[in-house]
C-alpha cells in the first residue's frame, strides 16, 4: 500500500490475507503483494512491489562538498573504486553480514527456468575471489529471515519468523500464527546446531521484529526488537536481561574491543551509546563522533574500534581517544552514501561495500572495492561544481551516474544549507555573482522568477539546438515554466502537479479561479473548515505563498501587498486558529470531504494511481481547480528531479551542459519509467507515453483452475481511505494528460525573508493591535525595500 503521509521504517511482519496472497508490511504500510501458488509453499511469486521510499527519494538529503579531483588525505592518498557484478543473481538482498574476507547473505533469488518465481537462499561469499557458494539452510515453509550475524565460533546466528495458518472451507486463511526463533547454523551444510523460541526472551513477541543483532566479546548476543528494547542472551541462547533504550534504535554494531554500541536520536541528532551489560543500561553518548539526522550507520572494523558511514562520508572511529578519521566522501568514489548496506575491510588492504539502488523491477546491487592509492597515480578529470541549498536524491543519483560514465568531467557538490538566520543563503547568493560561482546551480528551494531576473543563468536553448535536442520532444508547458523572455534558464528531468481539489458538483468543470472567487466560494458554503487541517499559515501558503508572483514582479520591482485582495486575505486568515491540534479525535478526511465538512484539499498528481485514488476518496468526480490567481491557471509544476540551471559565470559551460543533456536524454528519461525511480512524470513526450502505456497495462495472476484473473496493480491509501488500483482506463489517462498540459508555472519556493516579513507584520493585526489595511501597508513597505535591494 502506498500512503501519502508517513514513512517506512522497516519490514516488520508478514500477514496472510487469503490462501493466495501474502501481504508484507513495512512499518504498518503494505508494500508487497505476493502470490503463493498451490503446492508451492515456500516459493513466492512476486506480483507487485511498491514502496513509499520511492516517493520519498526526491526528499532533500544532506551532502557536503565532494570532489571530482578527489580530496586527498593528509598523506596524499585517495580511494579508487572498482565496481563488480555480484556472483549471485538476486532480486533482493534481505540480510548481509561479514567476518574477515567472507560475507554471508540471505537473498531472494530466481532459479533458472522459473520465470517470476523466487525463493530465499543463504550464501557464503568469498570477497577476495568474488565467488559465492549456496548454503543448504533447509528453511521451513513460510519462513522469513530478518537478522544475521557471524559468531566468534564461525557459525551463523539468525533470527527467523515462521508463519502457520489454517484454511477454511472457502480457502480463506484463518488462525494465522507466527513464531520467532533464534538459530545457530553451520555455514558448511546449513545444519541447525541449536535454537531458541524467542517468545521465551521477548515478552511482546507478536509486535516485535529483530532489526539488529550483535555479539560481544564474551559470546553474548544482543537483539534489537525494532523499537526501544535490547534483549540479551548468552552463547547458549539463555536470556540474560532486557535493556530499555528510551528511544528508537537506529543501528547496532560490535566494536573491535568486543563491546556493543547502538545509535539513537539525541537532542542534536544521532548519538552513539555503549550498551553496558553489567549495569543493564546504556552509557552516555560517545563524544567526538559526528552526529546528524540523516543516514548514520556503524559497522565493525579490524583497524579501529568502529567504522561510521553517513549519507556523505566514511570515518574510522577510535573509541579510546574519542576521535574520528575521515577516509573519504562517498561522492568522491561515486557512491550514494544513503544506499550503502555494509562496509568492510579486507586482508589485502582494500575496503569493500555494497551499494543498493532501488528499482521497481528489483533492487540493483553493486559490489564495490575501494583501493587506497597515491593521488598522483590517479587520472584526473575536469571538475564541475554543482551548488545548491539542498541536494535532492534524484540529482544525487544523476550526478553519480554521470561521474561514473563521463570520461572528461567529474561533478563535485557544494551544499550551502538553509539556516534560520539566512547567512548560508546570503553566501549562496554572493557566490552566484562572483568567481566562486558553481557551474551548475540547483534551484530547489529558490524562487525561480527571482533568480531568472538577475541575469545569472545561461540560456539553454542554444545548447539544445547545438546538441541536436528538439524542443518539440519535450513538454512545452514545462519548458515555458522555465522560460523568461523566450530564454530557457532552468530545467528539470521529472515533475508532478501541485493543485487544489474540489468536488465537481461544487465548483463545476472550471480549471481555475481568482483569489476573490475562491474567497467568495468559501464564504458562501461556510464549511466547518476549508481544509482538513487549516490554520493561518496554511491559508497564507494557499492564497499568497504559492502564488507570490501575483504580488511581486521581480522584473519591474513592483509590489502590491497593500491591495484589496491581500487585505481581504488577511481578514480571511484571521478566522483560522494559529495552531492546529492534529491529535484531536475526529472523522477521517474522506468522510469529511464527502459530507462537505471540508471543501478543498491541496494535493499532488504524481501518477495515474494518485489520480485514481483521489476520485475514489472524494466519492465522485474531482475538479483540479488549482490555486487562485488572476489568470485562472492555478495548477502548478513541482520539480521532483531537481531544478537545474547553468551559471552565466561558469568557466566551463559546455561541461555543465553535458550533465544537463544527460538528464534530458532519451535513455535517462526512459529509465525513469522503467525503474519507476523518483516521483512524478518524465518531461520527454515519448517517455511520458510509455509511462501511460505501462499504467494502462493490466496485470494478472493464474488461479487454481489455470485462468488468468486481472488483479490490482497496487493499493493506495490516504488517512482513513484506501483502494485497490487497477489498470488505468483511456479516459483516466487522457484526463491526466490534459491536467499535466494545463500547468505552465512553477510552484513557488518563496524566499524565507519574505515569509518572515509577512508573518511578523501580520501578527499585530491578528492580535487586534492594527487594522488589516495598516498591517498590509507595513508589509508593502518592507517587502518593497527588500525587493529593491535584491533585484
TrEMBL record:
The keyword ATP-binding belongs to this UniProt entry's keyword annotation: no
UniProt lineage: Bacteria, Bacillati, Bacillota, Clostridia, Lachnospirales
Membrane spanning residue stretches: 42-60
Protein name: Extracellular solute-binding protein
Pfam families, per the entry: SBP_bac_8 (PF13416)
Taxonomic superkingdom: Bacteria
Species annotation: Parablautia intestinalis
Signal found in the keyword field: yes
Alphabetical list of InterPro entries matching this protein: Bact_solute-bd_prot1, SBP, WD40/YVTN_repeat-like_dom_sf
Alphabetical keyword list: Cell membrane, Lipoprotein, Membrane, Palmitate, Signal, Transmembrane, Transmembrane helix
Amino acid at each position: 500500500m502506498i500512503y501519502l503521509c508517513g514513512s517506512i521504517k522497516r519490514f516488520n511482519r508478514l500477514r496472510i490475507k487469503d490462501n493466495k496472497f501474502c501481504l508484507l508490511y513495512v512499518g504498518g504500510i503494505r508494500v508487497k503483494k505476493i502470490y503463493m501458488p498451490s503446492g508451492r509453499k515456500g516459493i513466492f511469486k512476486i506480483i507487485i512491489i511498491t514502496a513509499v521510499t520511492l516517493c520519498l527519494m526526491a526528499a532533500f538529503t544532506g551532502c557536503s562538498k565532494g570532489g571530482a579531483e578527489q580530496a586527498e588525505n593528509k598523506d596524499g592518498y585517495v580511494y579508487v573504486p572498482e565496481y563488480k557484478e555480484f556472483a549471485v543473481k538476486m532480486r533482493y538482498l534481505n540480510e548481509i553480514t561479514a567476518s574477515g574476507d567472507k560475507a554471508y547473505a540471505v537473498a531472494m533469488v530466481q532459479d533458472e527456468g522459473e520465470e517470476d518465481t523466487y525463493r530465499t537462499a543463504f550464501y557464503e561469499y568469498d570477497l577476495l575471489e568474488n565467488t559465492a557458494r549456496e548454503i543448504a539452510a533447509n528453511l521451513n515453509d513460510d519462513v522469513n529471515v530478518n537478522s544475521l550475524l557471524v559468531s566468534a565460533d564461525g557459525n551463523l546466528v539468525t533470527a527467523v519468523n515462521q508463519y502457520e495458518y489454517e484454511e477454511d472451507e472457502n480457502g480463506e486463511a484463518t488462525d494465522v500464527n507466527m513464531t520467532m526463533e533464534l538459530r545457530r547454523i553451520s555455514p558448511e551444510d546449513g545444519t541447525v546446531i541449536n535454537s531458541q523460541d524467542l517468545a521465551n526472551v521477548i515478552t511482546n513477541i507478536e509486535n516485535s521484529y529483530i532489526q539488529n543483532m550483535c555479539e560481544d566479546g564474551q559470546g553474548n548476543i544482543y537483539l534489537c526488537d525494532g523499537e526501544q528494547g535490547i534483549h540479551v542472551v548468552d552463547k547458549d541462547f539463555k536470556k540474560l536481561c532486557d535493556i530499555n533504550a528510551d528511544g528508537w534504535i537506529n543501528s547496532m554494531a560490535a566494536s573491535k574491543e568486543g563491546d556493543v554500541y547502538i545509535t539513537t536520536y539525541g537532542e542534536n541528532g544521532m548519538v552513539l551509546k555503549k550498551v553496558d551489560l553489567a549495569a543493564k543500561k546504556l552509557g552516555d553518548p560517545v563524544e567526538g563522533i559526528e552526529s546528524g539526522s540523516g543516514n548514520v550507520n556503524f559497522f565493525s572494523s579490524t583497524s579501529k574500534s568502529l567504522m561510521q558511514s553517513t549519507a556523505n562520508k566514511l570515518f574510522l572511529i577510535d573509541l579510546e581517544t574519542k576521535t574520528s578519521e575521515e577516509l573519504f566522501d562517498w561522492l568522491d568514489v561515486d557512491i550514494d552514501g544513503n544506499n550503502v548496506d555494509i562496509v568492510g575491510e579486507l586482508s589485502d588492504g582494500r575496503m569493500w561495500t555494497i551499494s543498493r539502488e532501488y528499482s521497481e523491477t528489483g533492487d540493483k546491487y553493486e559490489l564495490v572495492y575501494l583501493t587506497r592509492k597515491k593521488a598522483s597515480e590517479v587520472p584526473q578529470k575536469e571538475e564541475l561544481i554543482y551548488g545548491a541549498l539542498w541536494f535532492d536524491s534524484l540529482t544525487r543519483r544523476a550526478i553519480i551516474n554521470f561521474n561514473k560514465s563521463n570520461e572528461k568531467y567529474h561533478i563535485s557538490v557544494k551544499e550551502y544549507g538553509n539556516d534560520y538566520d539566512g547567512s548560508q543563503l546570503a553566501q549562496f547568493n554572493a557566490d552566484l555573482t562572483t568567481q566562486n560561482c558553481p557551474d551548475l546551480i540547483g534551484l530547489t528551494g529558490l524562487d525561480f522568477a527571482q533568480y531568472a531576473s538577475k541575469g545569472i543563468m545561461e540560456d539553454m536553448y542554444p545548447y539544445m539546438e547545438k546538441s541536436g535536442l528538439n524542443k518539440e520532444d519535450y513538454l512545452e508547458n514545462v519548458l515555458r515554466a522555465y522560460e523568461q523572455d523566450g530564454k530557457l534558464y532552468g530545467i528539470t528531468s521529472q515533475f508532478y502537479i501541485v493543485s487544489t481539489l474540489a468536488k465537481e458538483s461544487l465548483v463545476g468543470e472550471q480549471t481555475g479561479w481568482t483569489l476573490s472567487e475562491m474567497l467568495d466560494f468559501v464564504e458562501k458554503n461556510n464549511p466547518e473548515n476549508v481544509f482538513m487541517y487549516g490554520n493561518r499559515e496554511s491559508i497564507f501558503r494557499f492564497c499568497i505563498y504559492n502564488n507570490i508572483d501575483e504580488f511581486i514582479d521581480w522584473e519591474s520591482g513592483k509590489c502590491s501587498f497593500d491591495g484589496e485582495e491581500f487585505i481581504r486575505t488577511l481578514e480571511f486568515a484571521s478566522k483560522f486558529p494559529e495552531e492546529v491540534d492534529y491529535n484531536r479525535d475526529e472523522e477521517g478526511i474522506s468522510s469529511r470531504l464527502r459530507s462537505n465538512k471540508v471543501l478543498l484539499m491541496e494535493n499532488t498528481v504524481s501518477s495515474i494511481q494518485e489520480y485514481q485514488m483521489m476520485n475514489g476518496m472524494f466519492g465522485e468526480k474531482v475538479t483540479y481547480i488549482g490555486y487562485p490567481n488572476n489568470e485562472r491557471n492555478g495548477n502548478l509544476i513541482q520539480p521532483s528531479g531537481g531544478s537545474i540551471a547553468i551559471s552565466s559565470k561558469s568557466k566551463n559551460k559546455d561541461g555543465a551542459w553535458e550533465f544537463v543533456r544527460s538528464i534530458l536524454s532519451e535513455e535517462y528519461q526512459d529509465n525513469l519509467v522503467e525503474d519507476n525511480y523518483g516521483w512524478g512524470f518524465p518531461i520527454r513526450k515519448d517517455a511520458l507515453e510509455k509511462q501511460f502505456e505501462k499504467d494502462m497495462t493490466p496485470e494478472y495472476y493464474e488461479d487454481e483452475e489455470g485462468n488468468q484473473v486481472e488483479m490490482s496493480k497496487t493499493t493506495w491509501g490516504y488517512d482513513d481511505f484506501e483502494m485497490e488500483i487497477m489498470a488505468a482506463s483511456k479516459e483516466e489517462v487522457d484526463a491526466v494528460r490534459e491536467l499535466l498540459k494545463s500547468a505552465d508555472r512553477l510552484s513557488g519556493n518563496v524566499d524565507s525573508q519574505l515569509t518572515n516579513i509577512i508573518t511578523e507584520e501580520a501578527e499585530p493585526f491578528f492580535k487586534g493591535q492594527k487594522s488589516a489595511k495598516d498591517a498590509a501597508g507595513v508589509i508593502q513597505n518592507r517587502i518593497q525595500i527588500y525587493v529593491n535591494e535584491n533585484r
